[in-house]
């Protein structure tokens, strides 16, 4: 174990690399054991109950709590030490987002505690201990991420690698548990909807592991049981965001960083009114479509078909707008000549990998729907809308991924919109160059002209200078030439600056519009509006069980893609 950042070690980085490999393998085995336990509970494996799974998760959370407390105590004792920080990791807006999800997760835990109290006669004690432990774990973890997400750990690196990677996979397992629980609830509603659409030949029985006893307070039990499933999407997003932030912290352990000034990128509403207005229109219409969809689907065959048709038409329109906006942004990038920042950045690299990796979930579902439409023998009218919808989903993610990845790799402009200071190149006698302080001093006649320097505001221009011994005609001619050259140079400069600002304004509006569109497209699958379940055509072609397995595996990644894209686009808007 390394006890200090400056302590020399034999073999240089070799022990650190070994610690990284060992800790990653520890985390993977931890995750696989929990994943297998989760699967065994889901399929009713002999000898495996929900209490075993919850006991495993409780143990992992307690270990992480001990490590975080140790890290926080050690940080307090070493507060005077100067620590390296990764300025790209743990942005404030990301911390605010995870805090919002954590607050809703705490409400979910309180609902679970109330649910356990009402069914305490037939539930295992672990189902009451789990939400309490999870609530404490959530509070401490959010505090830890707020204070230490940017840390670059240089001491106790081997121990810290195991602690951080343990935290990463603990959150991934909690995410998996939330996804599975929420999916089982969706499957029960899915079968009822398929029956109303006329697919009565599906006879598979689904089980939601309901408690085998009566509730002490019927009204409260109904509120708790229904409320839990509406809050699960926020819990799922919380754990996946926490795992990504912790993964960046793990990658930064022992990293050597260059100390340079980081330009702050605050979020400003100024200049993005158009993008915000169109985005809010999409968001409002999406919420309305989801509400109508959830009310109408499953009521009758006609109402279900109308609900599916309405969803597809709305989604096609939104995806077409997003594709158009993304293409315009990429065309603007092609017209600009700005270099890319290829420096080592774990947070940025993870963002790009997550965008492409999680997009594969949507692509899998889209290609499955396209294949089902092609191969199916009978095609209800509403299923034809699924074809352009699936094609646009594939194309839109291609374009959006390219736009976001190029945006986060482009070097940020150091200058502001308003030019505060201009460096003036001066030509002195003897062909030597010097810099005068600012353009204001030139115009006020306070430049140092004692050595016969001729100040020039722009390259290639000639600026008048006072010469007590010079002729009046030459002075007047020089003054006229100077005025003409100044006017031409000023016009050219501000014209170029105006074009650049217009491009930036368009890009900011596009980023704001796409940000709200991705939030809009996150809402339907997160809250149960899933045509991949309700369409019915895919189940006929692939079979009920195979297609449900595909949907349950791909849908969580598709949901996370939209939230991660929204977060990345928020960063793009701040950076542009």
TrEMBL record:
> So which domain of life are we looking at?
Eukaryota
UniProt cross-references to Pfam families, sorted A to Z: Otopetrin
Coiled coil location: none
Gene Ontology MF: a single term: proton channel activity
Name the family the entry cites: Belongs to the otopetrin family.
Q: What is the membrane topology listed in the Swiss-Prot or TrEMBL record?
A: Multi-pass membrane protein
Query: Which keywords does UniProt give here?
Result: Cell membrane, Hydrogen ion transport, Ion channel, Ion transport, Membrane, Transmembrane, Transmembrane helix, Transport
Source organism of the structure: Bucorvus abyssinicus (Northern ground-hornbill)
Q: Which PANTHER family does this one have?
A: PROTON CHANNEL OTOP, PROTON CHANNEL OTOP1
Q: Any stretches that span the bilayer, and where are they?
A: 26-47, 53-72, 93-117, 129-146, 229-250, 271-295, 311-333, 354-379, 506-528, 540-561
A GO cellular component annotation here is: plasma membrane
Task: Give the UniProt subcellular location, in the record's own words.
Answer: Cell membrane
For biological process, the GO terms are: inner ear morphogenesis
Instruction: Say if the entry is tagged with keyword Transcription regulation.
Output: no
Q: InterPro entries attached here?
A: Otopetrin
> Which stretch is the leader sequence?
none
Query: What is the protein's name according to its record?
Result: OTOP1 protein
Q: Does this entry carry the keyword Transmembrane helix? A: yes
Species lineage, top-down?
A: Eukaryota, Metazoa, Chordata, Craniata, Vertebrata
